[in-house]
Amino acid sequence: MRVYFLIIGCFISLNADSQTKGLTHYVQTMAGTAAATAPSAIKHGEGFALYGNTIPAVTTPFAMTQWTPQTQASEKKCVPPYYYKDELFSGIRGSHWISGSCMQDYGSVTIMPISGKLNTAPSSYQAKFSHKDELSTPYEYSIHLKKYGITTSVTSTDRCGIIEFKAEKADSVYLLITPNSEEGEGSVASDEKNGEIVGYNPVHRIYQGWGKRAGFNGFL
Fold it and tell me: CA quadruple 62, 65, 67, 68: dihedral positive or negative?
């Protein structure tokens, strides 16, 4: 038996500048994170229907987890972790959000750096930010939090994220880790002896069998 392959060549002319910067220079990671303003979009819906439900994810293709800034602290249906219009930052999320979908996130965890006095109330530790203080690319997201004097950067591999925290001054720095369980069943534990933090977030079914466990967890 003979097997034939049809190979189609695609040629793209790149100038010297694009070759130097790489193709990721052309990726607009914020696309779809703001409300559409086109007449055709407005005609067909309002609220979440105006959004592309995408996120500025730091990830590799088909990775196990993607990392994204969080401005929406939930795993609710049709509510992505990040909206461009939001003004309050609440952490870096290890997310399984399917970009462009109207599903819920699942098994996610959020890491928020703060400094000074320890406060675990979300309404208190969220930090106001400006898009001028963000850097968003497919391979790195970085944000400067003036409230805490901390710059947070994250990059990603297929199976993990690497997060760096830079403090402007000597002060107490805390990492608030939240398993985003809508059912309040997630947990986080600190193993001081081994220098590890472990936790999990059980996934619940939202479309069929609402409230029932899906049979798998997100682990930290």
Answer: positive
